[in-house]
């Protein structure tokens, strides 16, 4: 799929300088930037959807962990007394 992209002269110059410094083409730099942006935004959207699903499940069931319970569990990671995942409760 061919797509054109219009950018102002200042940004075009910055892309060209960076491409030269990296010994890459401007096309490669722009493609890399777009790929990284899309991947980052997909992760962000996935996180948001997971958070909304968690909130919905909490509203339906009331089951949760407190911040203190989670911190105690996480602080035990990598120690000799590593704790199991705590059980959710109402």
Structure, explained:
There is one protein chain. With 90 residues, the protein is an all-alpha fold. The chain has helices at residues 9-22, 26-61, 67-75. The chain is elongated and about 60 Å long. The relative contact order is 0.07. The mean pLDDT is 96.
Structure in a nutshell:
With 90 residues, the protein is mostly helical. It has helices at 9-22, 26-61, 67-75.
How many angstroms separate the termini?
52 Å
Task: Give the overall silhouette.
Answer: elongated
What proportion strand?
A: under 5%
* Mean pLDDT level: 96
Order of helices and strands: HHH
| Share in helix | 55-70%
| Strand count | 0
Largest sheet geometry: none
Low-confidence stretches: none
Essential attributes:
66% helix; 90 residues; elongated; mainly alpha; single chain
Write the layout of secondary structure elements.
Elements: H1 9-22, H2 26-61, H3 67-75
């Amino acid at each position: 799929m061919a797509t054109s992209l219009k950018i102002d002269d200042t940004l075009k110059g910055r892309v060209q300088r960076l491409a030269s410094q990296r010994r890459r083409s401007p096309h490669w730099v722009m493609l890399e930037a777009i790929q990284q942006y899309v991947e980052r935004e997909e992760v962000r959207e996935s996180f948001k959807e997971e958070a909304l699903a968690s909130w919905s499940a909490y509203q339906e069931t009331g089951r949760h962990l407190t911040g203190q319970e989670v911190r105690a569990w996480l602080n035990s990671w990598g120690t000799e007394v590593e704790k199991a995942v705590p059980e959710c409760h109402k």
